[in-house]
Amino acid sequence: MANIDPKVIKTIFDKAVRAERFSERSLFEQTALLREWEPVAALNVELLKTLTPAQVETVQRRMTRAVYFIELVKSDVTSTKYDVRWATRFPAGDPRKASFDDCIAIHENLCRNILALLPNPGFQNELMLVVTWGLSPHEFPADYASKDAVPIHSVDNLGLMRDPGHLRLLKVRQALLDSKLNADFQLFLSVLDKVRVKSYLTDRALTGDFKTNREKRWEAHPQSPQFALRRDCLAVELELIDQLVRYTNFPAGTIRYLQSVGLLGDTSRVARRPVTLDPLDFELLAQEVADPTHGKSAYQVGHLNPLKAGESAEFRHTRANISWITEDGNRIQGSLTLKETRELLLRISRNYDALIRAGEITP
User: Fold this and answer.
1) Residue 227 pLDDT
2) Which three-class secondary structure state does DSSP give residue 293?
3) Which of these, 133, 171, 187, 158, lies nearest to 262 by C-alpha position?
4) Distance CA 186, CA 177 (A)
């Protein structure tokens, strides 16, 4: 940071997280000096050739958020609070902690990597889609190479993410949420908000070594069962949308449009509840979204195998372990894996049939 005083920037960051309510917009206004730093200034010049000033601000705000900040769960696990990556409240040896100098190195590396890719029209389109159709103000195409790196937040481990699945997801979001493409965009905005929470935020876990409550999954402790890389969270969202399109009574016009632009795979198999195997019905989901009842949700999103039930990949937050579920299926399954649940149902069915044949119970 040869052309600016890094201590000034660090002081602004430290002050921002001490405020009662953290404001990214206010922080952006206070850190105009950071945009005079050569890597940031050079990137802005090139970004303005394809993006509007407001879109460039969005890119810079999200990159700053990804590089310097984290939302750590509070000690009482009631919610999260913004902090800097060099915060003193990190437990000793926590791999998520990084010095201010480490963050500066990450920031410079991301700027130069984006700058190198900007001449590519494909990357320009990706960046535009992220800015326009990101569901969260924290969405930025950067991810860790490995969750096992120590520290995890380092210049060698955090880099740009260019994933075909993410690009398809952004285009699918546009198809569902753009009012020019979809008259039902308000409905899908509500549905995808339900998807967003389960895809990106941790569950509430009040016991165990790693207590969590609505942190960004890639900001949870990497050894926590709730942790997931950003690309896995994006893949979870895409999987839930792919399942959604296979609901019975899903709008046929939307399916035809998605197929016409090459955004859909096989839609021949109807989406089913994993426990009861009844078909999932989009009209019922739409009714619930339009007229929700507080504290009740017939259609939910859940893990097929509980995250705490094992150490292997099948017990992680991945697209292979996620599904739309229903209230009755959730009650039946409880803390069991899907396999254990189905074995239980088969045993109940066999016992039921045997006792009917023996005349001990009546159907």
Assistant:
1) 97
2) strand
3) 171
4) 7
Of 139, 96, 346, 321, nearest to 234 by C-alpha is 139
pLDDT computed for residue 2 by the predictor: 65
- Tell me phi and psi for residue 281, to 5 degrees: -115, 120
**pLDDT < 70 stretches in the chain:** 2
Residue pLDDT, tens place only, 218-251: 999 999 999 999 999 999 999 999 999 999 999 9
Give ∠ CA 109-221-158 in degrees, rounded to 5.
10
Contact 203, 236 (CB under 8 A): no
- Residue 315 tokens read as 């017990």
Return the pLDDT at 363.
87
At 59 the pLDDT is 96
Nearest-angstrom CA–CA distance, 93 and 73: 17
Residue type at position 24:
E
Distance CA 115, CA 357 (A): 74
CB 209, CB 196: distance < 8 Å: no
Task: Quote the tokens at residue 65.
Answer: 């958020």
Q: Smallest Cα–Cα separation from 107: which of 162, 51, 41? A: 41
The first and second tokens of residue 85, run together, are 């990556």
d(CA 182, CA 255): 11
Residue 84, H or E segment = strand 80-84
**Alpha-carbon gap, residue 348 to 351, rounded angstroms:** 5
